[in-house]
Amino acid sequence: MLRDPWGPIRYVLAATVLANTACATGTGTVVTFPASWRFNALEAPVTAHRGMVVSTDELATRVGVNVLRAGGNAVDAAIAVHFSLAVVNPEAGNIGGGGFMVASLADGTTAALDFREKAPAAATHDMYLDAENQVTDQSVVGHLSSGVPGSVSGMWVAHQRYGSLKWQDLLEPALELARGFEVRARFIGSLTPSMVRSLSRFPASAAQFLPRNGQPPQIGDTLRQPDLRATLQRIQERGADGFYEGETADLIVAEMERGNGIITLQDLANYEAVWRKPVSFSYRGHTVISMPPSSSGGATMAEMANILELYDLGSLPWHGHERVHLYAEAWRRAYADRNHYLADPDFVDIPLERMTSPTYAQERAASISLNAATPSLDVGPGMEAPQDRINTTHFSVVDELGNAVAVTTTLNSSYGSKVTVNGAGFVLNNEMDDFSAKPGTPNQFGLVQGENNAIAPGKRMLSAMTPTIVLDPEGSLRMVTGTPGGGTIITTVFQTISNVLDYQMNVVEAVSAPRVHHQHLPDQIFYESGGLDAETVRSLEVLGHRVFERPGISGDVQMILIEDGLLSAWSDPRRGGRAAGH
Ligand code: DON
Predict the structure, then answer these.
(1) Burial group, residue 449, by CB count within 10 angstroms (0-12, 13-18, 19+)
(2) pLDDT tens digits, 309-331
(3) Which residues contact 25 (CB under 8 A, 6 or more apart)?
(4) Residues 49, 564: contact at Cβ < 8 Å?
(5) Bridge-based pairing state of the strands 525-528 and 547-550
(6) Ligand 1 atom index nearest CA of 434
């Protein structure tokens, strides 16, 4: 027999509580994780009063804290962390990729910086289709898979507006790390046997990352990256021009010619990061500030949050089937809209206001049944399951003044296109796969996207990256969060926020808690191994859901929580980064 905990939900709906008017909902439900769950949520978070950095790598985190100690602000620290991650986490940290920065400043202003890659001018709608109209693997591996990189422009543009320390000084720690750093388990873990085979196809990649006769370094080895160091030095001396012009640009174009890629000097010279208006919405009385298109993260999260705010989630048992059901129903609707409507706003008109409005959420919620799953085919088309050979990196920073920065940046797959620019020492992204190579066909994350996100010269491919900042009802900083995970990014970020606002978890619990995912298509709820108990799975199946266990949902949340002036932070135990305070 299923328990019937729907009483409070029926009450809330009957009382037609409107989105944005609900208040914190915790009704004292005790949150317990399934006995089979593998992460210990009892550890004490890292705490500090004067500043915090949490990133995927201990060395990069330390660089950020040193910048804060030297009087730098959160943006300064973020720039230094970004370039350091390009050295010590080269599978995802990058100068050959792109990403997004969301900032909330102590003076009350907010900002969103789009440094997403762009399609080269020679890109075409069907460039990845073969004679049989099938999508080839050229959007995923090799020179043709790369978009024009945006990261260096992003850091430069952020520094021009907000930097307080010298650009040259912020690059220095990365230069030092490129001279040589001690290899640790995380880096070795990125060099799986299949990755070694993929990188071996490209001599410059093999030379850089497989220094032991074509095999990975071992723990304790020093990894020296002289070509990368020289590139960083050009960026240090000339700013963005040290990447988009001159020797670095020439080396990128020479690499393109070597592998039939299409990025030109003109593409590089034309690239510029752009400031956009953040997506901002209310959830449980808090203000959530997140990334607008060309990322789908903020808008999709706004739609799911607006739908879920209509329900008193906090009164439902943690990870019971009732809550997971509501998550899945809200998420499938939000992702259906994401996949259909969202794209680069410089190319396509998108109904952003409507998608993020509470009124629209009420319309969307009207078709949700508490007693049965809505088949995704009644909301949109079908596809295959997502895969897991991917990587991105997120970091969060708060400084002494209360400035906060959330950055998510990526090469897309782990080691991106697998192509290292010969002589320049960095890996190029394979972000072109985030376009709809063939509208209606799944990409590597299983996302089925539409014509709006088709390839066009100079266009940015749609992203799911969701760097996010949450303010409390008084407008004070409450959370800084974000994660990698391809299509799962948006639901992962939402869950970290919901864990705190609906279930009053602390930062360790919110990050370590088991996660679930639904992205409209495939019409499946995924859960992490051990993350749901058997009874919950059975109950969801009774409601009509197809429920699948996955070894992991490939998140790597780096989160800072602020309460009464105390900063507490946690790095996701799923992969193991590091938080450190000032
Ligand atoms: O922009 C996006 O949505 C993807 N390129 C992100 C890829 C990713 O998160 C892979 N990491 N696990």
Answers:
(1) buried
(2) 999 999 999 879 999 999 999 99
(3) 284, 312, 313, 314, 315, 502
(4) no
(5) parallel
(6) 5
Assigned token pair, 559? 């989160």
Atom of ligand 1 nearest to the CA of 556: 12
CA 556 to ligand 1 center in whole angstroms: 11
Q: How does the average pLDDT of the chain come out, rounded?
A: 92
Tell which phi-psi region holds residue 460, choosing left (phi > 0), alpha (psi between -120 and 50) or beta: beta
Mapped onto helix, strand or coil, the DSSP state of residue 312 is coil
Residue 410 CA to residue 534 CA, distance in Å, equals 35
Name the nearest CA neighbour of 582 among 571, 564, 569: 569
Tokens 């943690």 belong to which residue? 318
Residues 173-201 pLDDT 10s: 999 999 999 999 989 999 999 999 999 99
- Counting from 1 in the atom list of ligand 1, the atom nearest the Cα of 297 is 3
Query: Which residue carries 């996010």 as its tokens?
Result: 468
Ligand 1 center to residue 412 CA distance, Å? Answer: 5
Name the residue of 412, 428, 462, 483 whose CB sits within 8 Å of the most ligand 1 atoms, as the mutation to test its pocket. 412
Q: Which residues contact 21 (CB under 8 A, 6 or more apart)?
A: none
Q: How many CB atoms lie within 10 A of CB 126?
A: 12
Is residue 441 part of the annotated active site? The answer reads: no
Task: Give, to the nearest 10 degrees, the angle between helix 167-179 and helix 58-69.
Answer: 150
Distance CA 317, CA 533 (A): 13
Q: For ligand 1, atom 2, which residue shows the shortest CA distance?
A: 463
Query: Can you state the angle between helices 321-341 and 534-542, rounded to 10 degrees?
Result: 60
Ligand 1 centroid to Cα of residue 115, in Å, is 14
Q: Before 522, cis peptide (omega within 30)?
A: yes
Mutate to test the pocket of ligand 1, among 445, 460, 461, 572 (most ligand atoms within 8 A of CB): 445
Q: Evaluate if pTM is beyond 0.70.
A: yes
pLDDT tops 50 at residue 293: yes
**What residues have CB less than 8 Å from 555, skipping those under 6 apart?**
483, 484, 485, 488, 489, 492, 515, 572, 574
Choose, from 56, 61, 392, 491, the residue flagged as catalytic.
Answer: 392
Q: Which residue, judged by its Cα, is nearest atom 6 of ligand 1?
A: 486
Q: Is pLDDT above 90 for 302?
A: yes
State the closest ligand 1 atom to the C-alpha of 116, by its place in the atom list counted from 1: 1
Rounded-to-integer distance, Cα 492 and Cα 479, Å:
14
Residue in 116, 195, 295, 390 to alter for ligand 1 test, most ligand atoms within 8 A of Cβ: 390
97, 151 Cβ separation under 8 angstroms: yes
Residue 38: partners with Cβ closer than 8 Å, 6 or more residues away: 529, 530
Q: Tokens representing 9?
A: 């939900």
Nearest CA among 143, 159, 142, 140 for reference residue 83: 159
Range list of β-strands (E), 364-482: 391-398, 404-412, 468-471, 477-481
Site residues for ligand 1, CB cut-off 6 Å: 390-392, 410, 412, 431, 434, 463-465, 484-486, 489, 554
Indicate the helix (H) or strand (E) that contains 112.
Answer: strand 110-115
Q: Per-residue DSSP letters for 173-235?
A: HHHHHHH-EE--HHHHHH--HHHHHHHHTSHHHHHHH-TBTTB---TTPEE--HHHHHHHHHH
